[in-house]
Every structure is written in structure tokens, then in C-alpha cells.
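[step 3/7] fold_predict: job queued, chain A
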Amino acid sequence: MTVGQQRAWEEHWPRLGRTVGELPAGPLDFTEWFGREAPVMLEIGSGMGETTSQLAAAAPELNYVAVEVYDPGLGQLMLRAEKLGVENLRLLHGDAVVLLTEHVEPDSLHGVRLFFPDPWPKKKHHKRRIVSPSFAKLVASRLAPGGTFHMATDWENYAEQMMEVCSAEPALKNRYDGWAPRPEWRPVTKFEQRADVEGRVSHDLIFEKQS
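[step 4/7] structure written:
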């Protein structure tokens, strides 16, 4: 970690962050943690935090939660949030599947965002991709009715896999007839910029929890 990222951990983590593996058994009380009741948006894989900090800053009405396994990324996210004066952001270090399974109540989330997850491009590694039938079922179970599962990827065969998997989950319905239009509010990530340079098209998918 850089000196700045280390400082962010020391100064901000005690207030903003928790480790998934150290959470007490049962659902996490987001209302208590944020000190207010508001819709909870969960972003899985916040990377270096550039997009996450901007999205949280742009939606102060949401309790914005980011879960990430990469320590320097969480440090950088805290630095970015500090710079933007973001108050509605909390961080979780650890496995999103464990978090959703053990610490998030059913029918409770306003939305789940998964932007540019690890594509595991080699065919033999496709089984490591996070979007699978069991994962789609888990996310759907944690969304409130009408809540959204928004994904984006620049790997076409992963986008097709996401579409196939989520379309087959009975609790989810595609908000669009096919790919979602790219939302203007979603910042362009460095991954997306690189994909554009390399000739890959990014796809957004937005599925909604059926009531």
C-alpha cells in the first residue's frame, strides 16, 4: 500500500470499514452502522474506488456499501471518498458471497452493482466467474421487490453468460429487451477505457427483482 492508503486505513477504517470474516453471526444492521434509515445499495468489487466514490457522492440518499478483497483498493477508495466529502459510504473487506449469504437479510437491498468483475478470460477458468446460477439466485433473494441487479462487462462472452444466467433466474426480470443502454451516470472506468482502445464493447445489463 502507498503511504496515503495506509493513512486512510489508520484514520478512516475504524469508522467506515468492517471485515466480513469478523462480523458477528446474523444480519448486519445497516441502519445502525450508517446512523440513519435509507435504501441500501451494495457494490461488489469496488476496485481502486474511482467509480464507487463518485457514485456514492452522486446519491446521498442511499446508504452505499462497497465490498472488496483488495486492501490497497479499499485504502484508495477511502482517500477518494475523503476528497469528495462522501458521508454515505461504508466498506466491507472480504467475500461478497459470504456477506450476502450470512449477513444480508432477504428482500432488503435496494440494488446490487457488479461493474467489470474479473472476466477470467481463459475457458478453463470460466467456472471462477462470480456470475453463476447460484450467485444470481442469491442476489435475487437479497433484493427487495423492484430492486435492481446491474452488471457491466467488456468481455462479450461474459456478458452473454450474465444474460443467460440472469434470464434463467425466475425471481429476476430483464428491464430491457436485451442489453441496457449505458447509463450516463456510470463513470467510465480505466477498464472500460482500455477495452475501448482494444476494440471491446462494454455491455450493461439491468435485471429487476419480481414482486
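[step 5/7] annotate
The first strand starts at residue 17 and ends at 19.
The two ends are 44 Å apart (CA to CA).
exit 0
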